[in-house]
Specification:
four-stranded antiparallel β-sheet; about 70 residues; mainly beta; about 5% helix; 6 strands; 1 helix
Length: about 70
């Protein structure tokens, strides 16, 4: 987080995540949802840029820009 000016704060965030398939997703035998033994883990990366402007004591304006990518490994 950066205090860009007296009434403007900016921050840049980055993150990543990983999700392994649940046992039921891979090997479930429920008639409503059959398992898929070929299912692969998922990964995600995201980045976000946020700007907060304190226009007046009682007014704040925020802007968020973000992007993410999701893929299987």
């Amino acid at each position: 987080m950066w205090d860009t000016s007296l009434n403007l704060t900016t921050k840049l965030l980055w993150g990543s995540a990983f999700r392994a398939p649940a046992f039921v997703e891979a090997y479930g035998i429920n008639p409503a949802q059959a398992g898929n033994p070929d299912i692969r883990p998922e990964r995600m990366e995201n980045v976000e840029l946020v700007a907060n402007w304190q226009a007046r004591k009682d007014t704040q304006v925020s802007l968020s820009l973000f992007a993410y990518e999701l893929w299987t490994t």
